[in-house]
Automatic annotation (TrEMBL):
SUPFAM superfamilies: Nudix. Signal peptide: none annotated. Pfam families: NUDIX. It comes from Ruegeria aquimaris. Residues 8-197 form the Nudix hydrolase domain. The lineage of its organism: Bacteria, Pseudomonadati, Pseudomonadota, Alphaproteobacteria, Rhodobacterales. This is NUDIX hydrolase. Its cofactor is Mn(2+); Mg(2+).
Length: 233
């Protein structure tokens, strides 16, 4: 069945933060010029949730507070699938491993064979849900994206080895957080960068998560704790 390109797809995006105590940097890559969604833009690794993600076992679950925030303003329980998608997309687009040493029981799904071959199981305990954004109407692709922050110290292997990455993102690099806005970024990425900068000194998951909600009526920020963001100005 052909996918409805106008449908809103759930997605997971991963922000890997390196050297947060000294010279914080984030991992980004550039989308292709012919990409239907955000061509040429520098973005974080990430992508849509696959149906199969719901059935992939995790060695460790998401932090409880993150699982609770993910369930708010959501029609279904997507926490597990989003966490799996985050680990999968990070591996596919960068070749970096977020997992625990271990071996899979039974047959390994095709999408996970290269990951399993590293001797790891996907793990979600280091993922922190920090932002949610819904793509505005009228775009060629629409995503309900959940952004996860992870400390680079939780990644297994060499942080500078991108040899296992797919070709979806080019120019993969660690960009100093203070310099990231010099790159060609989507608007929402700039907003997320400000949120990340505010969390550099706090290693704990946030209890309240910003949600940039775009629909046909309005674009507004909400807080995923049941309260709208306070007005400023």
């Amino acid at each position: 069945m052909e996918q409805d390109k106008a449908a809103i797809r759930n997605a997971a995006t991963v922000i890997v933060l390196r050297d947060r105590a000294s010279d914080p940097a984030i991992l980004m890559g550039q989308r292709g010029a012919k990409a239907a969604f955000m061509p040429n833009k520098f973005v974080f690794p990430g992508g849509a949730v696959d149906k199969a993600d719901t059935g992939i076992p995790l060695a460790t679950p998401l932090p409880q507070v993150c699982a609770e925030r993910l369930s708010e303003k959501s029609s279904e329980d997507l926490g597990h699938a989003l966490a799996v998608a985050a680990v999968r997309e990070l591996w596919e687009e960068t070749g970096l491993i977020l997992g625990k040493p271990g071996y899979w029981s039974g047959a390994v799904p095709d999408d996970w064979k290269s990951f399993a071959a590293t001797g790891h199981l996907p793990a979600a305990d280091a993922l922190q849900f920090v932002f949610r954004a819904l793509t505005p109407p009228g775009r060629p692709r629409r995503f309900d994206a959940r952004f996860f922050l992870v400390d680079a110290g939780e990644i297994s292997g060499d942080l500078d080895d991108f040899t296992h990455a797919s070709d979806e993102l080019s120019h993969l690099q660690w960009i100093p957080l203070k310099d990231a806005r010099r790159f060609d970024l989507p608007f929402i990425t700039e907003v997320v960068l400000a949120e990340v900068a505010g969390r550099v000194d706090d290693p704990t998951p946030p209890e309240s998560v910003p949600y940039f909600h775009n629909n046909d009526e309005a674009s507004l920020f909400l807080r995923l704790r049941g309260y709208p963001m306070p007005e400023t100005g």
